[in-house]
Amino acid sequence: MEKMPVKYFGFYSLLDPYINGYYQVGEREKARELWGKVAKKYQENLQYYSTLSLERQYQYLDEIITNVESYRGLIDILVRNQDEKLINEKIKEFNQYLDKFSHFYGEEEDVEYSPDSPSQNDSGLNLELDSGNRSIDGLNLLNQKTDTFPRKN
Questions:
Q1: Model pTM?
Q2: Residue 89 backbone phi and psi in degrees, to 5
């Protein structure tokens, strides 16, 4: 990670395999440390976007959705690797950031974790949440609002 310091890297989703790899080789602390740095970047981005007017948020909808879904991918890494120490705390934290964009994402998009629920896929995430519909819904919102808030190229 010396050649790709998180604070300067910018392509954070490319670090997901490193986090997962650390878990797979038993380096949980390294995985958690890198996970925290990457999550912080998504949190900073989402915090910034949440301060924008609704009109500006529609202009940045693609970026907002990308950050939310990438952050959700980090949560999925915790679930897949059964990091019980962090899962519930980090899911609550993620949901707080998701709530900042409740006008794009409904409450049904909140992530919940229950390791023995039969309605969950192998990763532990609710199947409904893993369907990909949330991104499509967000893009449909953008298309509906283009008359009101035209996008600038």
A1: 0.69
A2: -60, -45
Instruction: Show the DSSP H helices in the chain as ranges.
Output: 6-9, 16-24, 28-50, 54-59, 61-80, 87-99, 133-145
Residues contacting residue 22 through CB under 8 Å, at least 6 positions apart? 28, 30, 31, 34
Look at the block and give the residue holding tokens 């998701």: 98
pLDDT digits (tens, 9 = 90+) for 79-137: 999 988 889 999 999 999 999 998 887 665 556 656 654 334 444 444 334 434 444 34
Half-sphere exposure of 2 (CA within 13 A, CB side): 0
CA atoms of 112 and 127, how far apart (whole Å): 11
Q: Report helix, strand or coil for 133.
A: helix
